[in-house]
Write a structure and sequence with these properties.
The chain is mainly β. The protein has five helices and 18 strands. The strands form four sheets. The protein has an eight-stranded antiparallel beta barrel. It starts with 6 loop residues before the first helix and ends in a 7-residue tail after the last strand.
């Protein structure tokens, strides 16, 4: 009977060769160990499969499988087993220079892009605000006395948060009424000031669009001078007329009235001081000789000039020498009503040569008893006097 090689055994043999190829790829320098070859069981016999030589693998014809009995073919010699098997599929490792090294700390450069929203934001509806009218029940530039009532009327459309604020001539807020209706009326009482500014404020409009009404005040007392620009506010009381002595110095003026109250106007930075309730000053200038053409202060002013009262310690250095003898005259004084806010009311006095001085003080010092002094600034101007 003609015996043919069994194709199934050849297939197992090729699998064994594949295992050898993998082992050779891991370590090509190691000797081949025949004990690693798989064992094949055929018809009750134990056979160790051997790798085919290159010559045998290429010259062996391929025949169709037959159900006849398989016959084992003789394997290669020992020298053939030690021969390095031929690798049909060559795996080339990457060179060291082309390998990628991942650092221990690695932060990927990733940019996340927010996808566009499919929803369109709703736009706030535009509200049209209109001021239809804003009026007062007085004629423009007419005057009202302090305590008189002024009625304001207004009408608006589309606006909210209607507010009316009253301010004096210094723009200090006198009164504000908020949360008013879009249309309505409100009554205000005239304060003691020169004029009142009423402003209608409507939400939705800028401050430049807020209308303003001006109402002038008729003062219950008259000023001792007639210039309407000075001052704006009404006087707090009628003018006082007192006998006084005034003397001009190199750097200012000193005035003392019949009650001993002293007013000092220094040229340096227009400093103003008012001293009252002082007594006990000596004012001895007998040992002081002024330069030629200059004078000592009047005896009524000497104690203050020598710095014997609190608040006059540096007065001699500030004023210098008198430029002439003291003169007697009638001093007139009047003060404004206290305005709202931190500003103290200014006062006005008539000085030598019909000069009117506006005195604005910012500090006041009260001492024991009825004495004290105050400090501030002054300015001078020449208004017309009222007709006698």
């Amino acid at each position: 009977m003609n015996r043919k090689p069994c194709p199934n055994i050849n297939l197992l043999f090729l699998l064994a060769v594949g295992q050898l190829v993998l082992l050779a790829g891991c370590d090509t320098t190691a000797d081949f160990d025949a004990s690693l070859l798989p064992t094949i069981m055929v018809t009750g016999q134990t056979v160790t499969s051997q790798p085919a030589t290159e010559e045998e693998s290429t010259s062996r014809p391929v025949e169709e499988a037959s159900p006849t009995e398989c016959t084992l073919q003789p394997g290669p010699t020992e020298s053939t087993l030690k021969k390095t098997p031929t690798i049909l599929s060559t795996i080339t490792p990457l060179p060291a220079a082309s390998q990628t090294t991942i650092p221990a700390s690695f932060t990927p450069d990733i940019t996340l892009t927010q996808p566009p929203s499919s929803q369109t934001p709703e736009e706030s509806p535009t509200v049209s605000v209109t001021i239809l009218s804003f009026e007062a029940n007085v004629e423009p530039f007419s005057r009202r006395a302090p305590g008189d009532q002024v009625t304001l009327a207004w009408e608006t459309e589309g606006g909210e948060m209607v507010t009316i604020c009253a301010r004096d001539h210094n723009l200090w807020e006198i009164e504000c009424r908020a949360e008013l209706p879009q249309s309505g009326t409100a009554t205000f009482v005239m304060p003691q000031t020169f004029w009142v500014e009423y402003q209608l404020q409507v939400g939705g409009l800028s401050s430049e669009q807020w209308p303003v009404l001006l109402v002038h005040v008729t003062c219950p007392q008259d000023w001792f001078f007639t210039d309407p620009a000075t001052p704006f506010a009404c006087p707090s009381q009628t003018a006082s007329y007192l006998n006084a002595v005034a003397q001009t110095f190199q750097e200012g003026v000193m005035i003392i009235n019949q009650f001993g109250d002293i007013t000092i106007l220094a040229s340096n930075q227009s400093l103003y001081r008012s001293i009252w309730g002082k007594s006990g000053g000596i004012g001895d200038t007998s040992s002081i000789v002024p330069p030629d053409g200059l004078y000592l202060p009047d005896p009524a002013l000497a104690a203050a000039w020598l710095g014997e009262y609190q608040g006059t310690e540096d007065l001699k250095d500030q004023l210098g020498w008198a430029t002439g003898p003291a003169t007697s005259y009638m001093v007139v004084g009047q003060c404004e009503v206290n305005p709202p806010g931190p500003t103290l009311q200014p006062c006005y006095i008539l000085g030598p040569d019909n000069t009117i001085y506006q005195l604005t003080y910012d500090k006041i010092y009260m001492e024991t008893g009825a004495s004290g002094y105050k400090e501030g600034t002054w300015q001078a101007y020449q208004p017309d006097q009222p007709d006698s």
